[in-house]
Known about the structure:
Blueprint: H1 2-19, E1 24-29, H2 31-42, H3 44-50, E2 51-57, H4 69-75, H5 78-88, E3 92-93, H6 98-110, H7 112-123, H8 135-139, E4 146-147, H9 148-154
Parallel strand pairs: 1-2
Antiparallel strand pairs: 3-4
Helix pairs in contact: 1-2, 2-3, 5-9, 6-7
Amino acid sequence: xxxxxxxxxxxxxxxxxxxxxxxxxxxxxxxxxxxxxxxxxxxxxxxxxxxxxxxxxxxxxxxxxxxxxxxxxxxxxxxxxxxxxxxxxxxxxxxxxxxxxxxxxxxxxxxxxxxxxxxxxxxxxxxxxxxxxxxxxxxxxxxxxxxxxxxxxxx
Length: 155
């Protein structure tokens, strides 16, 4: 929620200041649409004054059809996760540094079946369609990490 409330409006103000424009067109994809939905619902005047058109590509307006068991289970505990994250100062989840990413790629080269199962358990069965020969390229950005606030929002 903070991204729609603080981050995206800050980006918009920065862009408008740099371009000396009064309004901009916002094109969001997936999570980028969720940020506008949150931000516009919390501060509609801001968005009305600065955005002339909002284009939502693959908008995330409802998550009731997500059928990834690990996400469904985790979403039930979003309040507890939010409390723990704030208490211990952990705001990014599943973010890997460069050496962890390299280790992940090497481990998955050795245990490809395990990594396929792990990825499917996190991201869902749709990845079965992917070309598993490109697994090392996929793992470069997986998991990409995220704010715990995303979990709270989608829950």
